[in-house]
Amino acid sequence: MKRHSSALDKIRAALAEHFELFLTAAGVFVAIGLIFADLPKGEQGLAHAFLVWLQGLLIWAVHRHAWFRRRSLIEKMRLMLQDRVNNQLTVMLGMSEIRHREMTPSERQDMETVTTAARTVAHELESLSVESLQSWERRHRFFLRGSWH
């Protein structure tokens, strides 16, 4: 039973990875089938209308699938960045706290500034999402014009 489950997992992974290709191929095969089908004119028109609707549904499904994959990728990237940055922030804060000597008011202010900055970075990473990315792109679209568009 374990092998059967593993094979299903591989098939599901392949379908998920090439979802757009499978949906497009299904639409093409239906279109080819309609071309060679021996249907009366009225039924052929109805079949073509259905095919147009089906293609629209397929395009929507592909778009929706891409949206979910993009959202999943952003979540994975957020978790990776959060882990790496939090590790570095922990090292920074740990090193500043290891110094067990009396700090001057200036050093104490610097320590509070570093701590506040570390908390701000951690909060920004926690709130990273597709929506926050789109909001950031809208705010910075002037600067992004030449970078990757």
Shape: elongated
Percentage of residues in strands: under 5%
Structural class: mainly alpha
Count of discrete alpha- or pi-helical segments spanning 4 or more residues:
6
| Helical content class | over 70%
Report the span from N to C terminus. 49 Å
Mean pLDDT: 78
* Biggest sheet descriptor: none
Q: Poorly predicted ranges (pLDDT <50, ≥5 residues)?
A: none
| Number of structurally distinct domains | 1
Rg is 27 Å
Number of strands: 0
Helix-strand pattern: HHHHHH
Describe it:
With 149 residues, this protein is an all-alpha fold. The protein is built from 6 helices and no strands. The mean pLDDT is 78. It has helices at 2-17, 19-36, 41-98, 105-126, 130-139, 141-144.
Keywords:
6 helices; 149 residues; single chain; elongated; 0% strand; mainly alpha
Task: Please sum up the structure shown.
The chain is mainly α. Helix content is 86%, strand content 0%.
Fold blueprint:
Blueprint: H1 2-17, H2 19-36, H3 41-98, H4 105-126, H5 130-139, H6 141-144
